[in-house]
Amino acid sequence: MQAYLMPPLPSDDKRWRIVNGTMRRHGFTRHALIETLHTVQSSFGYLDDVAIRFVAKSLRVPLSQAYGVATFYHHFSLKPPSKHTCTICIGTACYIKGADKLVAAAERKLKIKAGKSTSDGNISLMTARCVGACGRAPVMLADEELVGIVQPEAVLAQLERWATQ
Amino acid sequence: MTSEELLQIANTVHAETAKFDFEVNVCMGTGCISQHSDKLKAALSKEASANTDAGKRCHVRRTGCMGLCAAGPLVLVEPANATHGEHETRYGGVQEADAAELIASVGGAPVERLQTHLDAYFHGQQHIVLENSGRIDPEAIDEYIARDGYQALIAALTEMSPQSVIDQISKSGLRGRGGGGYPTGLKWGTVAKAVGAQKYVICNGDEGDPGAFMDRSVLESDPQRVIEGMAIAAYAVGASKGYIYVRAEYPLAVTRMTASLQQARRRGLLGNNICGTTFAFDIEIRLGAGAFVCGEETALIASIEGLRGQPRPRPPYPAVSGLWGAPTLINNVETFANIAPILRKGAEWYAAIGTEKSKGTKVFALTGKIANTGLVEIPMGMSLREIIFSIGGGVPDGRKFKAVQTGGPSGGCIPEQHLDLPISYEALIDVGSMMGSGGMIVMDDTSCMVNVARFFMEFCMTESCGKCIPCRAGTAQMFNLLTKICDGRASHADLDLLIDLCDVVKNTSLCGLGMTAPNPVLSTLRYFKHEYMEHIDHKHCRAGVCACGTKSEAEMEAAEVTA
User: FRET partner for B469 with CA separation of 20 to 30 A, picked from B74, B135, B247, B510?
Assistant: First the structure.
């Protein structure tokens, strides 16, 4: 049987070594796919074609399956992230406490729909399905920081700070 | 590790605590950290280290969730030698600037203005799953051991046969806390009997149900309890490998669980030859990636295997053919958290709590339009009214209670006339809802029930995995119909079609997501049909939420979803 040749790292970028490390820890088994994509997502911020091809080839997973997994799960993003991300939770508790008003206010301010980024690549407006901080509803994630009991004014103020930075 | 060694560890911890006069516990769950309780803890530690007078020495400790997220950041002060629950003082909304005052008050009169004064909230509860939450440092295994941790595992391994462990769990009457309510002992028995060289134990921590955060709290506050429960389960069913599937949205839970697994390994409570026996067991963490359907057991298994999280038809059940075709035991976080206390205190003790068919306690996440939002653990059989009005403090701002939603997107809304209902799996199903994982969302008269149904349908529509047609296309059509009703342009025929579709989707979907997706519609139709009729006949929304008749035709057409 011919030995399987591992694909070379796509570039000198050190982050590929981290990705490779995750795969090695799982013995390059196929079921490491999601774990590896998590590592790509956290190191690069998104999954691009190069990454998906590299991971699929390394784990000997059909490209279709790798792409299928990458698009199935909401956590994985195929587009590069903006500089800042405003995530508004629209779980049930936040919805009852008026999260829709927060989303509407942010959409009006940024002139984009939820799920999109501003054209200058500065701010992405996202929604989340419950971040588990329902006791502090409504909740917003300003980049990674969780802010509880937010009013529309607080969201707008945060967006303004980012825009003028 | 033997029980003598456990005792030794416990004694060391107790000796360490005895050097102090007071325990100052600072909540560092996700909710309180968002209010900077980390800075508060640093400030308290600084003040406490300067305070070395005998009788006032404080041990400042970070702990997991104390439950009352509404009043965060929370601090609990109690004498170091007191039996828990006595002479304790609870503070809420404590800021960094209050640290000096708080530490200075220790041993004397409490700081009146910071006290929570919510005795009804804390005393109405009975803590079994949450007994250590807010009392121990979640990343210190020794503190868990000092509170009787791992005694149950050692007792099981050295004194009990796997069958007698299963018998104890069966006798306790514990049922699955993920929502289905399947008897845990029966499930364990099936996996134990299944033939297979390799078996797996999976802990389902994919708490996708919006409005619920019990599992996050348990994983963040007392991770060792879950590990111990899983190890006991593995011994009982004959598994040697376990997985904990946690949502990626819970970074703190993942960090704390990873640290806890390492500590358990170092203490010899995971790995080979656990407690000097031949029993070997280890646990790996798997991260979810944001798919609600992965809470369904077969979808979760697919996700661990590195595939898209799509369910498959059952049977075969995972107990017979699960992860990589091997017999697999899947239980919820809260179920595993109940195991150690049951073995430690006995099945009879557990079975004495609760109702005839629903034993023990249940943790609920009380949120929405309610004064005391947070986590509560109550014995089964308590009435909804007690939970919402006595413990929860009722609806704030002088508004009127309208309904309480339980069971998440699979559950239903329970109106005021059923508030005296004692909580149990059966009783909730009888009124058209379900236990679910434990989200309890209170709504007042500013919520429109048609809009609530539409909200849940949108959730099910976007979270449908797309494998079976009734769920994929049915939820989209139901969403369109509900949108039409909300917009005030529906006819009676649309309502009939909606009811028809509910029936089809409920009976023909592949997995639980589709089968229960119509529940929010059916339960709101059952109790709030008049609101649907008002939207259709008078284009009027009594809560003022829906934009009845104000949108243009073109706008509405554009919003329509095709499956």
Answer: B247
In our burial notation (b when 16+ CB lie closer than 10 A, e otherwise), range B498-526 reads: beebbeebbeebbbbbbbbbbbbbbbbbe
User: To probe the interface with A, which of B441, B460, B462, B467 has the most A CB atoms within 10 Å?
Assistant: B441
ipTM entry = 0.91
Asked if B213's CB is within 8 angstroms of A135's CB, the reply is: yes
How many CB atoms lie under 10 A from the CB of residue B476?
20
What's the mean per-residue pLDDT of chain B?
Answer: 91
The residue to which tokens 């976080």 are assigned = B333
Contact B313, B205 (CB under 8 A): no
pLDDT over threshold 70, residue A71:
yes
Q: Classify domain B148-351 by CATH number.
A: 3.40.50.11540
Q: What is the pLDDT of residues B153-167, one digit of tens each?
A: 999 999 999 999 999
pLDDT tens digit string along B447-503?
999 999 999 999 999 999 999 999 999 999 999 999 999 999 899 999 999 999 999
CATH code for the part of the protein at B453-559: 1.20.1440.230
**How close A98 gets to chain B, by Cα (Å)?**
10
Could you report the per-residue pLDDT of A21-67, keeping only the tens digit for each?
A: 999 999 999 999 999 999 999 999 999 999 999 999 999 999 999 99
- What is the DSSP code (8-state) at residue B354? B
Nearest residue to B74 via CA among B108, B41, B107: B41
Q: Which architecture characterizes domain B361-444 according to CATH?
A: Roll (3.10)
What whole-number distance in Å separates Cα of residue B2 and Cα of residue B5? 5
Return the CATH class of domain B17-118: alpha beta
How far apart CA B340 and CA B351 sit, in angstroms, is 14
Report the residue from B34, B69, B304 with minimal CB separation from A31. Answer: B304
Residue with tokens 């989200």: B439
DSSP B194-263: S--S--EEEEEE---STT--HHHHHHHH-HHHHHHHHHHHHHHHT--EEEEEE-TT-HHHHHHHHHHHHH
Q: What is the pLDDT of residues B304-357, one digit of tens each?
A: 999 999 999 989 999 999 999 999 999 999 999 999 999 999 999 999 999 999
